[in-house]
Amino acid sequence: MGEAQAACQGRPASEALAAVIAALSAQFGNRLVTSQAVREQHGHTLTWVPNQPPDAVVFPQSTEEVASIVRLCAAHVVPVIPFGTGTSLEGHVNAPFGGICVDTSLMKAVVEVHPEDLSVTVEPGLTRKALNEYLRDMGLFFPIDPGADASIGGMVSTRASGTNAVRYGTMKDNVLSLSVVTPQGEVIKTARRAKKSSTGYDLTRLYTGAEGTLGIITGITLKLSGIPEAVSAGICPFPSVRAACDAVIMTIQSGLPVARIELLDALTVRACNNHAKLGLPETPLLLVEFHGTDAGVKEQAERFGEIAAEFAGGPFEWATKLEDRTKLWQARHDVYWAQLTLRPGSTPISTDVCVPISRLADCVEETARDAEEHHILAPIVGHVGDGNFHCGVLLDMNDPDEVAAAREFCERMVLRALDMDGTCSGEHGVGQGKMKYLLQEHGAATLHIMAQIKKALDPLNIMNPGKVVAWET
Amino acid sequence: MGEAQAACQGRPASEALAAVIAALSAQFGNRLVTSQAVREQHGHTLTWVPNQPPDAVVFPQSTEEVASIVRLCAAHVVPVIPFGTGTSLEGHVNAPFGGICVDTSLMKAVVEVHPEDLSVTVEPGLTRKALNEYLRDMGLFFPIDPGADASIGGMVSTRASGTNAVRYGTMKDNVLSLSVVTPQGEVIKTARRAKKSSTGYDLTRLYTGAEGTLGIITGITLKLSGIPEAVSAGICPFPSVRAACDAVIMTIQSGLPVARIELLDALTVRACNNHAKLGLPETPLLLVEFHGTDAGVKEQAERFGEIAAEFAGGPFEWATKLEDRTKLWQARHDVYWAQLTLRPGSTPISTDVCVPISRLADCVEETARDAEEHHILAPIVGHVGDGNFHCGVLLDMNDPDEVAAAREFCERMVLRALDMDGTCSGEHGVGQGKMKYLLQEHGAATLHIMAQIKKALDPLNIMNPGKVVAWET
């Protein structure tokens, strides 16, 4: 390896791949899997991007094992694709050039908890639900909730957020420090455990959302929150999406520290009624939740009710009882399954955009109108406090015309959001699915800077190649 | 310029410099200044790093002018040093290799406000006080308050924070998007105006805290907050620094959304009494502030009083009247001047560290003991909700023994913080003053990654060279 190696820009030579797989097999035994089923499962993405399985899947148990895998792959210029739970939505874990999938599911330890500091260090394969189980008795929780029971490593890598983000922020706001295996197989730590620092480039945020293209995250120190003393949740119907959005804007503007504020359009409400027999009025609804003291959540709920009434919303019914809240949020969380009741047998393709909140009503209304005009079934739910919403397009994947129409619909949704100074993804990420929009969203010069960073840190292009930024950018 | 130019690693050739100054003089007329007084003022830093003035200071009025300056300097490999208000504390604006200081003070426009989105776009030279003046009538404010009336551009570049950070976060949490002139003189935008996005590398955070070493920030879109309906502030004495810190930990753990929680040690309280005739008890004090509704702040203040009492603190006296609050916070803000009363004629050198909050009492106590043992006058104030505190070392800069002892004291403070998994600067930044600690804080591999990024984005090393990461790293 005396001279500089060429960067990976396609499938590696079969000898290189064979050498890597042989070495991994020797080192990992049955923790190295090459069966077609397992490979396909690891290329699986909940999207219409075709499955591109890796050549092998390896299940490391430590940072040092991950580093040794990466060093081996670097020596042979073989791609490395990090894998958490495979719940990402834009082809993040596909292996367009083949290579080795590093499945972190065996790395799921809670490494250390510091309750006084409200921080915890975990391995990347731990899921958010398992983490919250672990923390519950300490009166602490990790608030980021993207819906799926994703791995913490995957949530960092996709800069996940979800229903609680309006109050608690996204992953970028809740990661204190990362351990990362670099594309050269070195192990680095991005920061100390102090709550803030101004010493050097913010590598923590650089790796957060990099989708595994700059290294593999093998340790995460997270900020935690205290489980609130009181929680109240409620539901409020509105005559229109616009009225609901206006109420959201007013709620945020008045500084009401709402913990969750979710929009369900009439179609989604119908789906929830189908799925969970909720008997909700089939108009646009806001689902809200408040965290605080007993008196605090009561006051917040009352204020919210007043604001809703100003925009012809209501009645606002609120529930402080855990079982009522659970039922409500279960319906929200099950929305993916609920939406399927609108068209049994269809495949839901979930896509998201995010716009400045002042444009949210426009963007949601135009998107709903577009769906109607094109006879596309596309129920909408949104983390509206952040200006972020999702369409779950229900389609027959075997009908090429339907697929083509749905793709065009999703593309129009992205372009609409970009037109409103928004982003092509608020929380799902880029993966393969949205790479083509990055030029329009960021511009050539900004994309070039991202590519310069990629090339500087991963000169062989082995880390999850073919994602986020194109090598030739 | 056919062949690749060598990176700047010292003073540029005098012909290169002369060519740049002549061209700038032709373009900018009297907005290009080379007088010694102005040059020295622009190298001035509130620290013991010696003044290293730039060769000239230019006052651009637009992003395009900044870009043209940078393109010119790039063509001649002449350093470019961005300048806001010069209130940074670690030699950030010094020009060790000479070059052109880009003073952004004429770029102070509010470009656009979006009250519904709680966002504003400003030019970098606008100061935070001027911004808040502008916003007041809209019921909005920008919460980050580092004490000095710093420029927004400088605050972004140093990843500033201050008293409100415990509730509102630091600059990294409050910047939505940046316009940056790259070291090649191109203008890029790091993000759309949506509240969140997961599309590509987080360049917004990369430039935030980069101290001008990766480009010049020429436009900033900030998150704003609603001016709270009610504010209450109070003051609470404690028998010891440890008791005060324990009360802080409990306050944060119980999720009390305190807006500010500041520790003043007994020495600082004495200084404030001297300065503002406050008549406060000369023991460690916590200064706290709550934001919310009338009922909310009352409840918060009561809770805090109960927590304080658990740690032998109190009585907690609180003030909802603006004039009482103003007096209290004025004393906190004037602490730099107040501390001078402890030793008239001395020079205060302010330094900061940040540790996990569980180690705060240890770190503050050991630092105070160290000062006492070495007969150093070093009053302590801290943004203790974040584990961040400042020492203002009062010394006679003409006494080399005193200066040497103070430097050793500051170094021990840094090493103590690093030993506790803390950082060598919570909010002042690296500049020249703290570069030497980055290796120990981050490790060689992490520092190497920072250097790779610097080299990839600024291959000529013209952007604020000699700061943050050394070129040879």
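qc> Chain A is about 35% helix and 20% strand.
qc> done
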